Each structure stands twice: as C-alpha cells, then as structure tokens.
Amino acid sequence: MLTLAVLISGTGSNLRALLEAASHPDFPARVIAVGADRDAEGLAHAEEFGIPTFTVPYTAYASREEWGRELAAQLDAWQPDLIVLSGLMRLLPPAVVERYAPNIINTHPAYLPEFPGAHGVRDALAAGVAETGASIIVIDDGIDSGPILAQERVPVLPGDTEATLHDRIKPVERRLLIDAVQRIATGDLTLSR
Ligand code: GAR
Q1: Does the annotation flag 38 for ligand binding?
Q2: β-bridge pairing 53-55 and 148-155
Q3: How confident is the model at residue 124 (pLDDT cuts 50, 70, 90)?
Q4: If phi over 0 gives left and psi between -120 and 50 gives alpha, with beta otherwise, what is residue 105?
C-alpha cells in the first residue's frame, strides 16, 4: 500500500477527490497526512475523512529555507512513500526536494511546458490560446519543469473567465491525478527526475 502525504494551499477540491478514491478498499494508496502552508480551507476535507493535518505557515518563517526545514520535519514524521502537491502555491524548498525526489508529484492546470507557474489558467487565457489543459508532473528543482506523467487538453471556450476555465480543468486534473497515483502504487509507472 502506497502511503501519501498531500500538500495544499487552497480549497482542496482535488484533495477531496483523492481522499474519496483512496477510501475505496481496492485503491492501492492511502492518504496518511495532509499539510498546508497556510490556514487552508481544504484541510477541512482531511478532517472529515479522519486524516491528520498539519500547517507550516509560510509567513511565520524568516526565509523559505527555514520554512522548508520545518516542512521537511513534519513530512519526515509521516515517512510518506509519495508526496502529492495538490494546489500547493509555493515552490517546494530544496530541503524537501532533495529528501523526497523523485517521489513528489504535482498537479498543474495547464498543458506543460505551456504556462508553468502560479497562474497557469490566467496566463493561458491572456495568451488567447484555443486549448489549454491539465498536467501531472514529477517535481524537480525547477518551476513545473519535471517529467510529465500525464496530461490532457481542455478547450478554452468563448466567454471563458479564469474561474469558468479553471472549473473545467479541475475535473480533468482529478481524473489524471487519481489515475497517476494508482499507476505509481501498482508499479505501472516508475518515477524519475
Ligand atoms: C489546482 O487546479 C492545481 O492544479 C492548482 O491549484 C488548484 C487547486 O485547486 N495548482 C497550481 O496552480 C500550482 N502551480 P483545489 O484547491 O480546488 O484542489
């Protein structure tokens, strides 16, 4: 059974989908802890599923490195097989990447390498593209630059706003994420940096 620690910053709708999938007895992975860099709304999903949570508030530390050391310590307490970034809106610090890579995956709301970074949906809209997408990647030292595990196109529709487009991308992300975790857990997918 693959054990997962999930890190979030926001509403945690993708986290919730993963919690629902992982609560099925046949699913080969379990969420053992959910962490956040702020008082994230999505932590409530973990609590509802009885999963322990931790918060390492980014703004409480003098530097990203200090924040990273505490985040690494919290993760080490759980010894997860895989870390899933499900809407964590911070760059993971080297302390965590060096310790856990390549066993860290990230879900991103664009068809990487198009539109990396914190505003993947907004940037795609601003560029006026007809299609964007969703991607699941392995985290490396760069910004959304690691190996792509899965991705799918999502059309941009006339009149789309950042919110409507993001709402159509998220269900695709959820499906890709759950499938990727399942394939990692069963050994169908091997991670490398
Ligand atoms: C997801 O779309 C995820 O891909 C994105 O944040 C959203 C979180 O939604 N992450 C990034 O943009 C990371 N660069 P959720 O909190 O509802 O799951």
Answers
A1: no
A2: unpaired
A3: very high
A4: beta
What number does the ligand 1 atom closest to the CA of 107 have?
4
Q: What is the mean pLDDT of residues 47-65?
A: 96
Q: Which residues have CB under 6 Å of ligand 1? A: 8, 10-15, 42, 86-87, 89, 107-109, 118, 120, 170, 173
| Virtual torsion, Cα 191, 58, 8, 41, nearest 10 deg | 180
Tell me whether residue 45 is one of the annotated catalytic residues: no
| All structural domains of the chain with their residue ranges | 2-186
Fold (CATH) for 2-186? Rossmann fold (3.40.50)
Q: Is the pTM of this model over 0.95?
A: yes
CB 7 within 8 A of CB 35: yes
DSSP, collapsed to helix, strand or coil, labels residue 133 as strand
Is the link from the previous residue into 28 a cis peptide, with omega within 30 of 0? no
Torsion of CA 12, 16, 17, 19, to 10 degrees: 130
Burial class of residue 87 in the structure, from the number of CB atoms within 10 Å of its CB (0-12 exposed, 13-18 middle, 19+ buried): buried
Q: For residue 124, what are its two tokens?
A: 């795609």
Q: How far apart are CA 5 and CA 135, in angstroms?
A: 19
Both ends of the chain: CA-CA distance in Å?
22
75 φ, ψ to 5°? -65, -40
Helices and strands (DSSP H and E) totals, the chain? 6, 7
